[in-house]
Amino acid sequence: MLRNWLRFNWQELSGSFGDLGTDLPLLVGIIMAAQLDSASVFTVFGIAQILTGVIYGLPMPMQPLKAMAVIVITQKLSGPILWAGGWMVGTMMLVLTLTGILTQLARWIPQPVVRGCQLGLGLSLASVALKTYLPRGDAFGYLLGAIGFLILLLLPKERGVPAGLLVVLLGVGVAISRVLADPELHLTVAWQLPHMQPLELQTLLPGLLMLALPQLPLSIANAVIATQQTAQDLFPDRPLSIRQIGLTYSLTNLILPFFGGVPLCHGCSGLAGHYALGARTGGAVVIYGSLYLVLGLFFGSSVDKLLEIFPLSILGVILLFEAWVLMSFIKDQAPIAENWMITLLVGAIALSVPQGFLVGTLVGTTLYYIGRKMPLQLS
User: Fold this and answer.
1) What is the pLDDT of residue 58?
2) In a domain? residue 311
3) Is residue 330 in some structural domain?
4) pLDDT tens digits for range 234-259
5) What range defines the domain where residue 285 resides?
6) Which of 51, 129, 343, 358 could form a disulfide with 116 if both were Cys (CB 3.0 to 4.6 A apart)?
């Protein structure tokens, strides 16, 4: 049983890199925008990955909360507001889970609305990539972006080639070469634990309004409902309940803010990414988390320097491909015209309206049930 729960082999190692395209650009973007301690962020992120792999025995990912990440990056919100937002969304999700409301919501929110939220998120990530990361490079930066684009486009992912890792290593190599070329920059190895962070009461309301409420609909749709469905599709012999996923989501975000970590969730795209590159057990995310743990514990003092010189065009092209993956999920709604229109509408609202994910979910769900003249069923 343990062998099927956690395996450590070349297949799991290959699969461990399946979520790099989502995680690293968002982590780097959040650290830079909110001026966070990178050692704390990477250490806590690594521990969360390891625990998730052990608990589920599946390549179940932990990812930065995407709606929060986009808002923090674009609006340059502070760390205390970010941590408050994570704590508030964790509290709301815990209440929804323990009361059974989360399970009911999973039955109520229709598939076109779920796809619309994913479309809106993909468009938001693409906007960040095209407006924030890609334009900030010189001619060499654009060349790196083009090379990264070709690697991600052409490498045969079905053979387990970690294209995302190769692109990241390309960026790391450029960053290291810049360090070696500048005598004032040097990498140091030093033991560093995460910094404890108090939760500031005055940040709870801004965190709720600016981050938690916009994030909650996407989390319900993508981190819970879509992830549970993806796990059921890929691992039919290992059923997961909405309640299980809701509990690990909640507890993670109630604990991590006190250790300087970014808010996290599960994600269907990450689960599919790990699986596509070969992962079949929790061993893949244990390996993946261990890499971040080592980076945070021993190289935390150098991560800040690497982040400053890391080519942003590399991050942009990875983020752009992740946006494409998210947006590609909507194609299953195309055969039904009404569903397709709701998906597009929800995506447009999520992208362009303040608290768009919340507004889009409410509007899309209302239109769906009005269009079918079906009363909501409570059980």
Assistant:
1) 93
2) yes
3) yes
4) 898 888 899 999 999 999 999 999 99
5) 2-372
6) 343
pLDDT digits (tens, 9 = 90+) for 298-350: 876 666 666 667 788 887 887 787 778 778 888 889 998 889 999 999 999 98
Question: What is the percent of the chain where pLDDT is above 70?
Answer: 89
Q: How many angstroms separate the CA atoms of 14 and 16, rounded?
A: 5
Distance CA 93, CA 103 (A): 11
Q: Which token pair is 206?
A: 């801004």
- Does 379 map to a domain? no
- Count of domains for the chain: 1
Of 201, 219, 217, nearest to 84 by C-alpha is 201
Strands 264-265, 63-64: pairing is antiparallel
Is residue 115 predicted with pLDDT exceeding 90?
Answer: no
Name the 3-class secondary structure at 155.
Answer: coil
For residue 264, what are the β-bridge partners? Answer: 64
CA dist 124 and 147 (Å) reads 23
Average per-residue pLDDT for the chain:
84
Q: Is residue 138 part of a domain?
A: yes
pTM reported for the whole predicted model: 0.78
**Separation of alpha carbons 289 and 283, rounded Å:** 10
Q: Which secondary-structure segment (H or E) carries 107? A: helix 101-108
Residue with tokens 């450590």: 8
- Sheet strands (E) in the chain: 63-64, 264-265
> Quick one: the chain helix, strand, coil %, rounded to 5?
75, 0, 20
Query: How does DSSP classify residue 200?
Result: -
What is the identity of the amino acid at 96? L
52 contacts 63 by C-beta, under 8 angstroms: no
- Please state, in angstroms and rounded to a whole number, the distance separating the CA atoms of residues 60 and 53: 6
